[in-house]
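Possible race condition, two jobs.
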Amino acid sequence: MALRASIISAVLSSCLLAGSAFAETGKQEQVKPDYASQDLVQAFIDDLVENEQFKRSELENIIGQANKIDRVLELISRPAEKRLTWKGYRKIFMTEERIQKGITFWKEHAKTLLEVEKKYGVPANIIVAIIGVETYYGRQTGGFKVLDALSTLSFDYPPRSKFFTKELKQFLILAREQGLEVSKLTGSYAGAMGIPQFMPSSYRAYAVDHTGDGQSNIWKQEEDAIASVGNYLKENGWRAGKPIVSRAKVHGAKYQKVISKSVRPNKTLKQVESAGWTPVSVVPDAVKVAAITLEGAKGTEYWLGMHNFYVITTYNRSKLYAMAVYQLARDVKSGYKTAVPDINKKIVETQS
């Protein structure tokens, strides 16, 4: 899920991540809170009236429609990225069905994906994989009312009230800008919206009107969603044509000393090689890396993440998420090239 879309997460293969899409299950218990009497809510309204030119009566009416959703509080407290190992997380996303549907999605939107890849420098298969992880290619965009989810997390979830209050503010401004009906918009339990699961601040910062119809519609227009993901990654530092991650082998007694908790590359290739890490694929000498471990089905896996791997985590700050995107992108690309080897060539010829 951002001030970026990066702060998005989820629960089971049947639970929609605020950054990785699962279908949210469980009864959504609605409680009509007395938000108007809360000092935090009044301060929120005061801010929007003073700084964003909203009418107080309008805001009181909107917030008065919000329900507290206990299911939202339950889901936000146990995201999949914090509960699962790579072994369990991978099973959710690396399925033959998801790969095949990714190939189909690519076929259906090959022209748009080619245009977006050329414009933003982000590979088509990475964009397809992010949409595949987030919402199963637009099939699972979340069943919570965004107003309910963001109000619940803003006013009834103290650990992250500050962040979600900012997102609720962005949501109300966004709805006004785009002419959207606040009470009807749905998304994930964390307020992430549409096919790419953008948080409201990310929508305002990165959503793109690729179709040229005057609105960046990430709910219903795959073209806009695809371009928005490409723009998001580019603006967050994607380096066109650069590597993402490499499997590695380790040896000796010093390899554990360079393992990083963060996926931000902070060591030179020479440093990790000196500690006992050997990349399986070719890694440029000048590149910086993060030495990463994952608990897979056959034991510990060793990986060297590079800058573009880190950029993927700006969408969702989890190495499990980034690895799922990378591996799904890899397998979808392989299947796509086998299924339609000449399709991009034909598209280029048509456009010239």
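Job #2 (started ~2 s after job #1):
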Amino acid sequence: MKALFPLSGAIARRGLLKLAAAAAGALLFTGAAQAQAPAKTKVAAIYTVPVEQQWVSRIHKALTAARDRGEIDYTFSENVTNADYERVMRQYAEQGNKLVVGEAFAVEAAARKVAKDYPQTAFLMGSSGKPQQPNFSVFDNYIQEPAYLTGMIAAGMSKTGKIGLVGGYPIPEVNRLMQAFIEGAKEVNPQAEFTVTFIGSWFDPPKAKEAAFAMIDKGADVLYAERFGVSDAAKERGKLAIGNVIDTQPQYPETVVASALWSMEPTIDEALKQVKAGTFKADDYGQYSLMKHQGSSLAPLGTFAAKIPADLVAKVEARQKAILDGSFSVKVVDKEPKSSAR
């Protein structure tokens, strides 16, 4: 009987069948792998200032780290005006973002209104207020513990006993850090004098610089740089500065002695954990900024490690240990600090 297909044709046919089977298997494997890969969580952030600004840069850094780990799809808007904040919040909620992060300090009413309209979206907002059920959680930079330690260092490094503090606005988030800094300084030098100025802006380095110059003219030789621009003034006049939120010593190696650092990673990681598990609820995430959660820390002394007196370093290390083991608590004082300089 004559073969239906020539031998060579049959071999070719079997080869094609094998290729088709292999291709189908590859597609099934790819599909299975894609099915097994966890879906990325869509996250959006809204910032009223540039992402380079100290406070906001910490949130951006934590979210960028989560993105780089492959956990989230991250998008953000910066320099959003207060008048436009509500619109941008709604836009991100409509786009299906599971978590929206931002600062609601100047737009509390609008932000909370949006959260009510999108109960299935998780909102994590920098806020002086309380959580709002069911989905509006709050956080803040509770870094008063390392701020206290930097105050100790400032007083120990000051030759005149006169210390200047330049801040943005006298709101609780700034006040508590300045108050802790002052108390830390008083522990080392009870006679220290303080000049306090608020520039009325979150990002105006020239104005902060001028305020710092005025303090130096009055005898201050160590400056608390709550805002950008203060360290520039200290550098130009040969004075010392204490950093806030981020470590700027690399940019001012002969000026910035120490800094109280804020890390938003513990806060963001906990929020993402709750969102992914479907258990996110209105809560206060402020505790994740404390030193025990690694949300804040005293920056390495770096270029000043050998310049700070050994006995002062020992005092600071002992106080830090007491904070971490719970035997010493830095008080949270939100009222506006006042100048004590005579």
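The first helix runs from residue 7 to 36.
Logs attached separately.
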